[in-house]
What we know:
Number of strands: 0
Largest sheet: none
Helix content: 55-70%
Order of helices and strands: HHHHHHHHHHHH
Strand content: under 5%
Radius of gyration: 22 Å
Mean pLDDT: 86
Structural class: mainly alpha
Distance between the termini: 88 Å
Amino acid sequence: MSTSVPPAPVGELPDDPPAPRPSVAASLVRAARPRQWVKNVLVFAAPAAGGVLGHGDVLWRTLGAFVAFCLVSSATYMLNDLVDADADRMHPVKRFRPIAAGLVSTRAVAVSIAVLLAAGLAVAFAVSWQLGLLVAGYKVLTTAYTFRLKHTPTVDIVVVASGFMVRAVAGGLAADVVLSDWFLAVTSFGSLFMVAGKRHGELLTAGSSATRPALAGYTLEHLQFVVSTTAAVTIVTYCLWAFDHPRTSSIPWWGLSIVPFVMGILRYGLLVDRGQGGAPEELILRDPGMRLIGALWLALFLGSVYIH
């Protein structure tokens, strides 16, 4: 006796078949958040500003620092998602992350974290023992952030911003470049500016339903104050850094680079005010205005270093 599937009611379309479940390997790659690796490009800042990327093995050592931070930061993201899995399941976006969605087992995630961390530390120590210790300290800090520090307002954005500082210092260690005070000031306050903008975007999106404990301790007015203050300090310190460089060409490259830098700060501040600052790494790459300004700044920056 044969059976037949009843036809769909007139005027209604049959349901789409469920999407295939992604493989464990693909889910682990997603959980490692390779899109976030763009943050690690900051390790090239000090060697590039010092004009030493083409000297000896500096480029390879800096690439080693970049790889080390990619591996260790991915281990950090996976640990953070593992700890926050229950809270992420209540978030409208984060619930689709592989760990929160149950696409990978806890054991597979734990093994991946251990492998990524061991590989990252091995690469860092292969570059230099100083870089190895710095990366190990970065991992200790981010672990403390995962389990405790991210729950405290202000402390959480300072810790996240310090991660950018560590990357900048790592580039200096890898290339054996002495970092100027103004360079460190620009990096630190610029990082605070971006992280505060990220929290502003998250709070604007989540509102009273925020699942991040520290986020509930902020107000939009306070975060806007932090964004405005750090933006002003970042601009001032960049100007001082630019004018502190000796003039090596008839064209004032460093001084000219101030123009797109300030434009970038203003553009990013506008996007933050619109509530688009929740994912700064994606915003910078996707916004046409930020891409154009960034390309102009990079051209002037490289001209200031390599054109004499």
